[in-house]
Amino acid sequence: MTEDSTLVVQALKGDRKAFEMIVRKYEQPLTNYLGRMTGEREAALDFTQEVFIKVYCSLGSYRPAYKFSPWLFKIASNHLIDHWRKKKLPTLSLDQPIDDEDGSLTPQVPDPGPSVTRKFELAEIRQKIERALGFLPAALRELFVLRHVNEFSYEEIADIKSLPVGTVKNRVFQAKEMLRKRMEGS
Amino acid sequence: MRDCRSTESFYLYLEGELGAFERRGLEAHLETCPACREVLAKRRLLHEAFISLPPLEVPPDFALSVMDRLPEPAEATARWLAPLVAGTASLVVGLLGFYLLTGESLSDILVAVSRSFSSGFGRLLPLFAKLLKVGGLLLDVAFGFVTMLGQGLVTLLSALGPEGIGLILGLGLLLSLLLFFGAKRLLSLGEKA
Question: Are B12 and A172 in contact (CB under 8 A)?
């Protein structure tokens, strides 16, 4: 049994300290994920709280044979979807192919130089990515965040989102290329 | 250029997601293709930025505020309580319905239920006795059969002598080996199919 599974078993027996350890372990990754999805830190913290309460109430349905973090993020993802449905936010179709004119785009990301310059460049690119993330369709943004912010494997993301692994890989790629194009346009 | 890989391959390469064969193929191609090397260098910088996005700040007392908002343990343990309450309620509703339909009181119902149980048990008792008797007979027959088989085997072995026993054991071993490898072969053929 993994450390998380043991904590879940203890929490199910009424040990609140065990659940607090789960909260402390996952508050940062969940806030990172929800923050990038909502675009607001305060809203992300509220969502994170709500997700932890949902998780606490659903602990009985967790199967210790499976990894805990994908189960947790599945609840977070469904929570976001419910929220968006209530708000009736517009969604973009993922079936539309992205405009992939690879050769025509003028690369604006410079070649790697000395490390100080590179650090500066990276900081600048990160800022641009954060801004560009808000323009990505939510479904692509979510897959990108799960992969590169939360560092889930493609297989784990496929499990969280109930999608084929190939689809996840392709959509993460689409997200990255859309980000790149957005950054180059800004 | 011929053999140039898709941009998706570059990302997967940077993430270490390409298989060994594809990775070697891409690396070999990169050695000879300056255009692809340039594309890879640009994606590498982007990739580094993707994987190093800074974490969002979480207040130090965040976990405590979550713990304060959790429902009380009584609500959490209500999971086993709900089926119990539902079961009791259905029993009460059933008894009440029975009373309303038949006009029988609760004590009448209980008496009727206990009578039907005792009469059913009374009918089953002789059946149990018969089953026990038949079981004993079957055990006797099985014991007699095993004894007879043992005696027959002893007689056969004494008639065969040490050479005959050796021959039979050898043949048995050969047959077992043939069966074992045959089954293994069949299984591997099945897996391939």
Answer: no
